[in-house]
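Help needed: design a sequence for this.
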């Protein structure tokens, strides 16, 4: 069995990874003296509310590093970001968004590197204790100065830094 040559890696994969890397490097460098940590797509979460199925966000910020079970975190990240790809878009917008809301994630970014836009979703609860998401803000090149991590107002990444994928 031979490995695929580097040339076979799709451009989608590289740009998807670059957006994740840009966020982790830029935001992570601002969290050195914090109890919170930012992780890229190598961290697993496992929640009872999701029947202990493993979920791997593209980016997450978690503030309780002790909530672990083997190789998975069982704590709830306060922030999650998914970078869309053709293969994952419906899962990221549907089932994954529902899971994040159900377990108590506060803020969820859906980043589309193809359109260069960020959709910032927040979660809330109805009177019958069902969770729902709502679009808090859509950030594009036209309003790029409004890009802000709602749950962490002291952390900053600019629109241009996030989409530095050329």
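Sure. Designed sequence:
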């Amino acid at each position: 069995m031979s490995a695929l040559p580097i040339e076979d890696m799709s451009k989608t994969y590289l740009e998807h990874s670059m957006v994740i890397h840009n966020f982790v490097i830029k935001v992570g460098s601002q969290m050195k003296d914090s109890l919170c940590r930012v992780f890229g797509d190598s961290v697993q979460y496992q929640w009872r509310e999701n029947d202990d199925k493993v979920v791997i966000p593209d980016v997450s910020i978690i503030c309780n590093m002790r909530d672990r079970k083997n190789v998975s975190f069982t704590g709830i990240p306060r922030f999650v970001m998914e970078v869309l790809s053709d293969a994952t878009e419906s899962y990221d917008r549907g089932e994954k968004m529902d899971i994040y809301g159900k377990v108590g994630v506060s803020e969820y970014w859906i980043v589309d590197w193809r359109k260069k836009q960020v959709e910032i979703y927040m979660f809330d609860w109805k009177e019958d204790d069902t969770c729902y998401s709502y679009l808090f803000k859509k950030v594009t090149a036209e309003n790029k100065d409004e890009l802000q991590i709602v749950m962490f107002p002291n952390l900053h990444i600019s629109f241009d830094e996030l989409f530095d994928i050329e």
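The chain has one domain: 33-162.
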